[in-house]
Amino acid sequence: MELRTPAIVCAVRQHGETAAIVRLLTEPQGMVAAYVAGARGRVLRPVLLPGNLVQADIRSRSDVQLAFARLELLESRGAWLTEPLPAAALAWVTALAAATLPERQAYPSLFQALSALAVAICQAPSARGWLPGLIAFETLLLRELGYGGSAPPPPAADWTETLAQVDRLGQHLERYLLADRRADVMGARALLRERLGRMG
What DSSP letter does each residue of the chain carry, written as one string? Predict the structure, then answer.
């Protein structure tokens, strides 16, 4: 595989002293795991933040070999990681994508939806502006992976009803997509829901 494409950083796991295994969501290949040399260095550390949009050069000699990647930053989400709600939302949606999407299976609609959601999280003046997009992304993910056929519910005018939609979707995600996953994935959603609840 030789691929040069924009990608969303979804998960980073340290590997050895200086490298990392990075899970990237791309439009043409879906979720791709790749080895990134020097990932823990001063130059690449701010590039490898979950939610960042990067230009990825991905290469592998065979379909069964772990790919190697070179990454260049296209759009950073770092400035919003100091804000509790945007940070929790970005952590949740990227962890969800990394935990549930199969390797090298394209889901162009999910790539586009996650790209748009990350922009909305960072640019909307409050969570009221991006929460309907998060609900739509979770609904689309369930549908694309075969666990639901309905369209996203219309945005609720009432904040209490919007939070009720979030809670209902959370039950479906935990039951169908994350039933056999580690608890820390849903922990990211629990933190987001707690922060949303404080908005009242």
Answer: -EEEEEEEEEEEEEETTTEEEEEEEETTTEEEEEEETTTTSTTTTTT--TT-EEEEEEE-SSTTSPEEEEEEEEE--GGGTTSHHHHHHHHHHHHHHHHHSPBT---HHHHHHHHHHHHHHHHSSSHHHHHHHHHHHHHHHHHHTTS--PPPPPPPSSHHHHHHHHHHHHHHIIIIISTTS-HHHHHHHHHHHHHHHTT-
The total of other beta-carbon atoms located within 10 Å of residue 122's CB is 19
Q: Measured between alpha carbons, how far is 198 from 127 in angstroms, rounded to an integer?
A: 11
- The β-bridge partners of 179 are none
- 71, β-bridge pairs: 56
- Taking only the tens place, the pLDDT of each residue in 59-79 is 998 877 899 999 999 999 999
Are 90 and 75 in contact by the 8 Å Cβ rule? The answer is no
pTM of the model: 0.91
The 10 Å Cβ neighbour count of residue 185 is 18
State the Cα–Cα distance between residues 48 and 182, nearest whole angstrom.
22
Where does residue 150 rank: exposed (0-12), middle (13-18), buried (19+ CB within 10 A)?
exposed
Sorted by where each starts, the structural domains of the chain and their CATH numbers stand as 2-76 (2.40.50.140), 79-197 (no CATH)
